[in-house]
Fold:
Amino acid sequence: MKIVLVGTAFPYRGGLAAFNERLALEFQSEGEDISIETFTLQYPNFLFPGKTQYSNGTAPDLKINRSVHSVNPFNWRKTAKAIAKQNPDVVIFAYWMSFMAPCFGTIARVLKRRCNAKCIGLIHNMIAHEPSILDKILAPYFVNAMDGFFTLSQSVFKEIELFERKPKPKSWSPHPIYDTYGALISKEQACRHLGLNPDKRYILFFGFIREYKGLDLLLHAMANERIKFSNIHLLVAGEFYSNEEKYKKLAEHLGIQNITWFSEYIPDNEVNNYFCAADVIVQPYKSATQSGVTQVGYHFEKPMIVTNVGGLAEIIPDEKVGYVVEPNSHALANAIVKFFASDNAIKMTENIRDEKKKYAWNILTAKFRALLK
Structure:
């Protein structure tokens, strides 16, 4: 097939770019002719909460063309015409927020007038983690321009129906494992690199820090006396997309001393140090769809504690590879204490090695081809 993927990719950074690139590499390895149309402008700077939108890494071995301007309607038509000239069989729109709905929806509509490509929405988030009125206003314009949909969790699969005028073909497959962040190394080696004491027991909170990710819940859990005065230490690794001072003042107010902040974007070649230093990964999210952090955890074979929101519980079998708890600090504290008090870690790691086989990239691409048929 000739496939064009429209979405974020190098030189942009972040989990969505990493997903699109890894998916394209998988299709490419399977013999498909795939290219990516990414952005000349992704977000206006005043809308971007981080320090930079751009990667400092190297480009993947893919055909990536910077063509899409997210807020210029004249560009949308120009981009659609250029894609149509490639005569693709399918155009995948990697959608994650309603801000992109006018851009992607217009490109799809112009495409359909100029070629026979099927337009498939690859939906990471249908409704934002922090919803706004724009989700209701803009999302239908995108949804009703698609010929079908593919999601990474059942919860997102169901949300599409809220915006459809009529049902369209849909399929889903769990988020595959990120296997592009380096090799497993020993805890001692990882701690040495990060300047940590390998004798401590480490919890890792990883990724961009936003309100919905529940770091405040985890800080309150760390203040539980069973944890606060123990050998359990919290690592917070990621760039703040919300008020950094608020979280650090909360930790100070709670008297939490057993915490180390790595308050910056973690480049791809450093990710393995943080995961390999950790004994358990904690995702205390207040809302979720699916999570790339979970699949990085699977790659590094780390037990995980997640909250029962969105699609997280779909891929973390409770008591088998970790714990699924309600999104509150008491439940999180109980799960942390239970994990370190038991001898389940070795057994969970063994289970993870079996469970992760379900999340191969070729399983997703096979389901995608089935959707097209």
Remarks:
- The first strand starts at residue 2 and ends at 6.
